[in-house]
Amino acid sequence: MDSTLTLLRDLAEQQEYQALYHACCEQLLQAETRPVQLLLSLAYAQIGEQEAARALLHRVQNSVVSSSLPCSLSFLESQDLSAIYLALSEQENAESVLDELLQQSPDNALLIARKAYCRLMQHDRLAAYDLYRRAFALDNSKVEIAINLCLMLLANQTDKDAAFLSDTSLVMTQIQSYLAQADRQFERNQDRYSAAHCQHLRSQLNGIRIESWLLEGKLAHAEHWLQTQFNDLIEYRDNVLLLADQLCRNGGTIYRRSHVVSGGETITARARFLSATGRIVSSTISSR
Fold first, then answer.
1. How far apart are CA 106 and CA 84, in angstroms?
2. What is the biggest distance separating any 2 CA atoms in the chain, rounded to whole angstroms?
């Protein structure tokens, strides 16, 4: 059972929730065990079946004799419970479980990162940022943590309501540092990711790369980088569309502020051109 649970938890870590759902259902046909029930509840929550997730979690809770649920579960089961609460957007319950677990394992990077997410969802951005930094310092192999740090720092630059740091130059330096570390870890570990998770992480990293270049007024740099992707048409198409989307959403504001390009119309026209390019490349891929 231990090896089976390891495989199931690997599916959860890879965010392969449909596969996790089917694997848990298959295991439960053989025997109804609490760890698998918890992981099935997590799968339900992540695939949009919140009511089924809550119902199954309620069954597990009713089967526990102790009145204090986290204490009655094993460490890993409680860790899974925190993931269920997060997937159900029950941040306070998740944080309560995480705080108990962190008393047992204060330097657990995964738990600290989950607590950071709780803080972020409750709009305590500075606390979330500090917790993510601590988690990444403890385990810099977690690409997802570096991505979250970059996304928080980018939001700090583009959304006044999300700002928590005031030193713009320092923020950009930190983005580049975390992105470089994430790139290294991604290249080192991508063989252990599923194809879907690998593509998801690559897309996030490229989105951060493109947005940070735009924030620095480096549109030409971004477009030159795009040309290096041309040998892989799918990768090229995805990144062209990412750049077009960034220009549509943020280009006018960014370039007025940086004085690299004057007037929103030029940016809009460039975004439309890139979108059209992406559609042409999509057609080329489809016709093969």
1. 21
2. 67
